[in-house]
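Next comes a single protein record:
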Amino acid sequence: MQPQEPWITVVIPAWNESERIGCTLQHLRKLHRTEGAVFHEIIVVDDGSSDDSWRKAERFADRVIRHSRRRGKGAALETGWRAAKGEVLVFLDADLGETAAHAGALVDPVLAGEADMTIAKLPPAQRRGGFGLVKGLAVDGIYHLSGCGFRPEAPLSGQRAVRREVLESIGGLAQGFGIEVGLTIDALRRGFRVMEVEVPFRHRETGRNFSGFVHRGRQFWWVGMTLLHRWRHPV
């Protein structure tokens, strides 16, 4: 008898994603293996959207949890994984669209026992974005604060698969746009195995315009605050 694979839950945080979330969830639902569905449970956490993201999600998700106000990506993921049944949690963005169908590649190394957490490395951006300041800060921060010399190529990637025991050991996720950097540092500090995996995901890209620079400015602040907190509070 083949050993039973662990229960897998997908958690998707969403804020005003009504245009893309339906497509993303629909393609996740199409994922199948010979023994059944890749994912056993899909949870969407609507983070106080002003549009009908939650209503679009209800068509495909097993559960939709709604925050009464916007609390940030970290808080949405925290709500989602604590409500999940899964032994393996998959964090995906709501705007992946049809490329969400590649999510199985993110989970395979965890199921094979090769990693406790995987991080998706996406293909090169199709449009010019920022100047690499946020990414550079994140890479250097993870390298110096993780305690193991890990230098990531995709430090800001929100597409991840992680064993539940990692999250329980950490005890809580960083808030805002610092979630990914904080999770990587915390996992590595506790001796968990982190692996980056090439996955052909595509999501909405921010360009070199006003809104793009505002977004990256917020990212820089959140990542900086997350690194400062980890520097002040080593494990």
